[in-house]
Design a protein that fits this description.
By secondary structure, the protein is of the alpha+beta class. The chain is built from 27 helices and 39 strands. The strands form eleven sheets. The chain has a six-stranded mixed β-sheet with strand order 6-7-8-9-11-10, covered by helices on one side. It is elongated, with a radius of gyration of 56 Å.
């Protein structure tokens, strides 16, 4: 530019059109005032106010105008190009190359505006590189026609927080950037600039700063920073409710504030620029002229102006034709015309529609009555144009949370100021339209609260319920109510100070009109416009709601909160507490440290005063904590204090002592009259002289004594069996098997030795080995004992079954020994797997968190033990069951003196009793090693001894009885002692028995001369018949109720017991059992 230049800066928030697209139907009619306004009027003023010789000195003026993006109105929403109509008008038609938009606009993607020849200007928004707007957003706009630079600062979300270093940083960054560009171009070098061909096209004017906000404090902060900068801006202008005449600071920076947000106004700043020191451009003068676009001078309505109107008219016609249908509704009555204001008189259908739409997920929604207007529409389709005609302003949804008290204050303010008239009044727009609640009021009440009742819709109960005073409700309203409408911003914002109340915040993603359109689209039915009784004027009730409280009405434990006009509960002080509620001390003769430390925290939002209340006599505070004992101590919120103390053990007796250290807490400040509960902690001291390890100790000899007795019995019976192995009774009981039973019980009894080992006599390693030795000895001994018994009974069962069927059978001992080997091998394999994979280990555990009390026990680390132990129980349990089953089958085979089935049953019953009683006792005494040890030892002892006694004592008793010869009168004596039904029958039976005895004597003599397997000689037919009639004689004896159940038993005292008699081909084989 020349050393002296003039820049015409035009500033306006005018929209694209003059107003409603249905206005200005004849653009050629210059008398139609509806055509005034919009960008056509702006362009006309610019043409007539700029250009040429501005001051008569030959200096040519340049002009700069950057329009505001027109986003939310009926024209933009209905036009086929949508938001892209801004580019059609501002750039393609009028030739302007840039525009301004708020930060929240760039959250959404609008490809129709993402172009390099029509750029958005915003200086305080950093976009991600992935944003589609990143290549098309200018932080500083360089205007090639004027050489001016333009900076737009707008602190609306989602820009960085208002005020503070962030916003100022963007401002300084813009100043430094323009200065850097000029410096690199040599614009501050005298030789380059003063020489011929000075770099005019490369030197830019200092930035023009547009502060797009109403915050005067932040505007002044930017102004002070800019004036002190090395390269200050050319001009700073901002928004206020009043006009501030332009002024020039000492550093020649101009600043001015103007109400830019008024669409009908245009400001013209003529700035004269001179060259200052270091060739920087400075402002020499600035003048402000204001124009009302709705009153455009006739001389400005030239042919070009009419052409502009005709072009805009064609675009408006396209918007009208394209007006999309968004839903259907019932008849919508006239809302506003002239002074008629339907919504100011009470409930109105258009108010119900807008509040229903913006309510969404909120509990209730309200809008003011003044902004609602429009001619309404007939029942049927609703278009975007209908919605914008009802609310022709750009608004966004505002949501927050308020208590029932705040809801009352909001409605009380509304009903107290509203005039309830359907004609225009200054305060008529204070009446709120609502959704999600109902209210009744009495307009005849002049002074005081007019509210009679308020009911809120409850989604769970599906009905309206009375307003609850302290309940929290989510609200929804418009940005106009939250930010601008007189007194309502505080009701939706700063006055919401109760706990969990949230001031209103704006959602810029959609406008209110878009929200209403989406609501109708997704409604799925015709919107019902009939009144629903949300406003009820009840002139019969003069008793208003009593939501207002005073200080005198507060109850105990409540305090008066003047800001909320409420009696609120006193804070509990629950967040004033010690870090440890219980500090335990375990003191033994070896203890040296008797001190403790506890931290008292104040995590409340208020200060508390502490005073000691009760301290146990054996708790002595250290020097660092004496302040708490000296008097009241203030603990600030967020701070903590350490309590250090010692335990005076000299006044304690052995045992457990517990005491409470207690402090009183007082609350002041914002909570007058409030007290809190005591804050305290307990101290538990356990004084012990020695440690209780719960070891086996003195009871161990008793266990060893029982083991010695069981082992001694096993050895004794083993030797006794060997000595009398040739006796007929032991031969009948199979001596080898009887000796194996002794060996099994001997091994089982030895398990008492590892059971008696603990860490009082051995190391933990030895104790672990002893733990594993117990199942080895118990299972091995058990397997030998019961497999032997099972083999013995199996052999008897086979022989006796054959005898009853009068057939010969031979059962060798080798066959019986196989079952013993199989059961013993299976036990060995399972025990080996247990030992290798998951063996028992010795462990000591503290009892009830008392370090002086502990007990030792055997435990496996993994889960293998459970599986193997289960298999061992199943395996050996099956042996017991099978043995009992075999004994039961053999109960009637032969003489009970020789068959042990009865005694096996008695032994099994005794073992069952031992297990039923012993196992629960073991489980209950797990932590009492002495009781558990004795129970285990007793169980092993009883099982071993019962087996030995029940198997050997009956045989010893039988062997002690005198032997009788076959021909003796034993049988006869037994038979004569019974009463017989007839002498003849008894005599005949005796004769037959004598014949059988004679035949058996002959058989014995034949057996002596031949082997067991050889025939004993021929027997005549009569003998064969007699032997064959043995069963008949038995049945006859039963009928005669004789004492003996088997005639063969009378022969049992013979040297050999014949258990098998077989008649086949007139020969007899006799086998010894």
């Amino acid at each position: 530019m020349n050393p002296t230049a003039v820049l015409d800066l035009f500033i306006s928030s005018a929209g694209l059109l003059w107003g409603n697209p249905r206005d200005c139907l004849d653009p050629t009619n210059t008398n139609d005032r509806t055509c005034n306004g919009g960008l056509a009027s702006v362009a006309s003023i610019i043409r007539n106010r700029s250009g040429g010789d501005a001051d008569g000195t030959g200096t040519t003026t340049q002009h700069l105008f950057i329009p505001k993006l027109d986003r939310q109105n009926i024209f933009v929403q209905s036009h086929p190009s949508g938001i892209g109509v801004n580019k059609l008008i501002s750039h393609d038609h009028f030739g302007w190359n840039a525009y301004t938009a708020p930060p929240y606009f760039f959250v959404r993607d609008f490809p129709e505006l993402q172009t390099r020849d029509f750029r958005a200007v915003l200086s305080n928004l950093d976009l991600q590189r992935s944003s589609p707007w990143e290549p098309f957003l200018e932080s500083v706009y360089f205007d090639l026609d004027t050489g001016a630079t333009f900076v737009h600062l707008n602190p609306s979300p989602p820009a960085p927080a208002r005020g503070g270093p962030y916003f100022v940083e963007y401002f300084l960054r813009a100043l430094d950037y323009v200065a850097k560009v000029n410096q690199l171009s040599g614009c501050y070098d005298d030789e380059k600039v003063n020489g011929e061909g000075a770099c005019r096209t490369h030197c830019w004017l200092p930035p023009i700063i547009y502060f797009n906000d109403f915050d005067e404090q932040l505007f002044n902060e930017l102004l002070q920073v800019g004036l002190k900068h090395e390269h200050p801006p050319l001009l700073i202008y901002g928004l206020t409710g009043e006009i501030l005449a332009p002024r020039i600071a000492e550093n020649k920076t101009a600043f001015v504030t103007i109400p830019v947000n008024r669409d009908e106004l245009l400001s013209h700043l003529r700035i004269e620029v001179d060259q200052g020191q270091k060739n920087e451009r400075i402002v020499s003068s600035v003048n402000l002229t204001r124009f009302n676009l709705e009153e455009l001078p006739e001389e400005f309505k030239d042919a070009e102006y009419i052409e502009d109107l005709q072009y805009l008219r064609s675009l408006a016609d396209k918007a009208i034709v394209n007006d999309p249908v968004v839903g259907t509704s019932g008849f919508m009555p006239l809302t506003r015309t002239g002074d008629w204001r339907k919504c100011m008189g009470g409930e109105c259908p258009i108010g119900n529609l807008f509040t229903d739409a913006i309510r969404g997920d909120a509990d209730f929604a309200v809008v003011n009555s003044g902004g609602l207007r429009g001619p309404g529409w007939p029942a049927g389709n609703i278009t975007v144009g209908n919605i914008w005609s009802a609310l022709p302003f750009l608004n966004h949804r505002c949501t927050g949370v308020m208590s029932g008290v705040s809801v009352f204050r909001l409605l009380n303010h509304s009903t107290a100021l509203a005039t309830y008239e359907s004609t225009y009044t200054a305060l008529g727009d204070r009446l709120l339209q609502m959704s999600g609640m109902k209210m009744s009021y009495n307009t005849l009440i002049v002074n005081g609260t007019r509210l009679i009742s308020v009911e809120m819709w409850d989604n769970e109960a599906n009905e309206y319920l009375p307003l609850e005073r302290l309940k929290l409700y989510k609200f929804a309203t418009t940005s106009w109510m939250c930010n601008h409408f007189d007194q309502f911003p505080s009701l939706f914002g700063s006055d919401l100070q109760m706990e969990e109340e949230i001031p209103g915040s704006l959602d810029y993603s959609k406008s209110i009109n878009e929200i209403v359109a989406d609501y109708l689209t997704t409604l799925g039915s015709t919107y019902d416009t009939t009144p629903r009784g949300s406003h009820m004027n009840d002139t019969q009730v003069f008793e208003p709601m009593k939501f207002i409280q005073n200080e005198e009405s507060c109850l105990i434990d409540y305090y008066w909160q003047r800001k909320k006009l409420s009696c609120l509960p006193c804070p509990s002080g629950k967040n004033v507490k010690f870090s440890d509620e219980l500090i335990s001390f375990f003191i033994t003769p070896d203890s040296r440290d008797f001190g403790g430390r506890n931290i008292l925290y104040n995590r409340e939002l208020f200060n508390v005063t502490l005073a000691s209340k009760s301290i146990p006599s054996w708790v002595v505070f250290r020097q660092s904590s004496n302040d708490l004992m000296g008097g009241p101590t203030i603990l600030q919120h967020g701070e903590s204090i350490a309590i250090e103390f010692d335990i005076d053990v000299s006044i304690l007796t052995e045992g457990t002592t517990q005491g409470t250290v207690s402090f009183e807490t007082f609350i002041g400040g914002d909570y007058p009259g409030c007290l809190t509960d005591f804050v305290n902690f307990d101290s538990l001291v356990e004084l012990r002289s020695e440690e209780n390890l719960n070891q086996i100790g003195v009871i161990r000899p008793a266990g060893w004594s029982l083991m010695a007795l069981a082992v001694g019995l096993a050895g004794f019976f083993f030797a006794w069996t060997y000595k009398h192995r040739q006796h007929r009774v032991l031969k009948a009981s199979q001596p080898m098997f009887m000796q194996l039973i002794c060996i099994g019980t001997f091994i089982m009894a030895l398990s008492i030795i590892p059971l008696s080992i603990d860490d009082s006599i051995a190391s933990p390693e030895v104790c672990s080995k002893a733990c594993m030795a117990v199942p080895w000895l118990v299972c091995s001994g058990f397997a030998i004992t019961f497999s032997t018994l099972l083999a013995k009974l199996w052999r008897v069962h086979k022989v006796m079954s054959a005898a009853q069927n009068f057939r010969r059978i031979v059962v060798h001992q080798d066959n019986a020994l196989k079952s013993i080997a199989i059961l013993l091998t299976l036990n060995f394999v399972l025990l080996l797997c247990w030992t290798l994979t998951d063996p028992y280990v010795w462990r000591r555990e503290i009892i009830d968190q008392d370090p002086t009390k502990s007990y030792g026990f055997c435990v496996s680390q993994g889960k293998t033990r459970v599986a193997i132990l289960t298999l061992l129980i199943l395996l050996n349990g099956s042996a017991i069951v099978l043995a009992c089953e075999r004994a039961y089958r053999a109960r009637n085979m032969g003489d009970d003196s020789y068959i042990e089935s009865r005694w096996v049953g008695v032994a099994c019953l005794s073992w069952l009793q031992v297990l039923i009683i012993g196992i629960p006792i073991i489980l209950l005494t797990r932590r009492q090693p002495v009781a558990a040890y004795f129970t285990r030892v007793a169980m092993v002892f009883l099982i071993c001894v019962s087996m030995l006694l029940f198997m050997f004592l009956p045989k010893m008793r039988l062997m002690s009885q005198p032997q009788e010869t076959p021909a003796s009168g034993v049988y006869q004596q037994r038979m004569t002692t019974n009463t017989s039904p007839s002498t003849e029958t008894e005599s005949r039976l005796t004769h037959r028995i004598n014949e059988l005895e004679k035949m058996l004597v002959e058989a014995r003599q034949g057996a002596t001369r031949s082997s067991d397997s050889q025939p004993c000689g021929p027997i005549d037919a009569s003998h064969s018949n007699e032997i064959g009639s043995k069963q008949q004689i038995s049945e006859l004896e039963k009928r005669l109720k004789l004492k003996e159940s088997n005639p063969i038993s009378a022969l049992s005292d013979s040297p050999l017991f014949f258990s098998c008699v077989s008649v086949s081909s007139m020969t007899c084989n006799i086998e010894q059992v």
